[in-house]
Amino acid sequence: MSHSAPAAPAAPGRRSTRRGRRADVTVLLAVGLPLLCALALLAVGASDAEDAEHPPTRIALSRATVICPSALGDARKVAITSAADGVSGQVDVGLGEDRVAADIETGKVTTVAADDGPLVVTGEDEAAPGLVAARFGADQPAALSCPTPTPHVWFTGVGAGAGHTSVLELVNPDSGTAVADVTVYGRSGVVDAPRLRGVSVSGHSSVRLDLGSMIPRRDELAIEVVTSRGRIGASVLDRYDEVGAPELTEDWLSGRAEPATDSLLMGLAPGPGRRTLVVANGTDSEVRADVHLVTADSVFAPEGVPEIRIAPQSVERVSLTSVLDSKTADGATGLLVSASGPVTATLRAVAAGDLSHAVTGDVLDGPATALLPAGAKGVTKTVELAGAIRAGSVAVVARSASGKELDTARVDIAPDQGVSVKLPAGAVSVTVTPERTSVTGAVRITATGKAAGTAVVPLTLPVLNGLVPDVRPGLP
Predict the structure, then answer these.
(1) pLDDT by residue (tens digit) across 172-222?
(2) What is the enclosing helix (H) or strand (E) of 47?
(3) Cα distance between residue 261 and residue 14, in whole Å
(4) Rounded to a whole number, what is the largest CA-CA distance in the chain?
(5) Which CATH number fits domain 362-462: 2.60.290.11, 2.30.130.40, 1.10.760.10, 1.10.132.100?
(6) Under CATH, what is the fold of the domain 56-138?
(7) What's the confidence (pLDDT) of residue 328?
């Protein structure tokens, strides 16, 4: 009988050896893969940390919009020009279906006869860079550089009482509905104003909000306008009814995009009158501020003006009548408000029965162009500059409506020094170009005689380029 040979026994330890190798590979993958992913994430994070901020790309401006408020009285004309080099084209003027075309050219000032309502000036392609427009008063000096639609703007020193009131005008240049939220700050904090929250402005239309009828109160106010949907151009018409005056006086109040620790207010109205400094603090902390006078020789703190303490989210008022009417202020061209935190400030003057405002303009590191009303007998126009960060010079070029250079001046400027440049009476535009420094300034327009008064046009930088944001995928 034959028997099959028994199977050879398996080599001892072979099965256990194979199991051990499989376990080692599993452990390696379980530990190694997460480690590799972590290292990759760290590498990506380190790369992003080195370049966390991605500035927008500057491109040629293909479309520009400025918005002019409603006219004062019979002064319905709008002045338009371009501050960019080599511009020659057409712009669209109007709101809604009632629109006209106007030719513009660098250096020349085009005057358009318009309606008494608000207007939108739109330039496209070659007519877009450097678009500047302005509106002026009739019986008394008043002027405003038409602002661009901005998502955030402050107006400080507005009123809602019987003697001093303000009208906020919101203009929507687009076809869709726009929405704005208006926050009102008073001496005791934020004012409850539900009718000013979520203000809807239909396409190609405007809304006028009379603060005196909506939130009647006697204290000084500041308003913060935030556009939450669409685009809105905001402007404020300020009205002051002085006791004993034959009629009220009114002028536009220029806005400011952002609060700052230093506010340089240029354009002090001459002659005796009432001067009121209004400072607004939109932060959650108390802010302290000091006032300095700006003259041709120095910037100094005058006697008799104490430190100003502005409570959180509130407004403080200081009378500067006695200081600015004294010999101490002889030769002063502006005020410097230096604060411990970001604030906005306005100096309101009622002199010779006329209302005017000294407000802060842009920090100019390039050419700025302002439009001025036509010259008349007894009218003086003066460019006032200060706030130089280092010693440098400023070129001031005055032109007629045809673009002809009426006068060219170059003045030196240094820190803690104010500079004044008188313009020819016939100048309707002025271009200010700082060199080797930056400055802040305004044009003061003063009239004597029957139409006595002052208007102040802050110098602002025109929009010359468009910006495209840097958009890239991010980590979840």
Answers:
(1) 999 999 999 999 999 999 999 999 999 999 999 999 999 999 999 999 999
(2) helix 14-50
(3) 80
(4) 146
(5) 2.60.290.11
(6) Jelly Rolls (2.60.120)
(7) 80
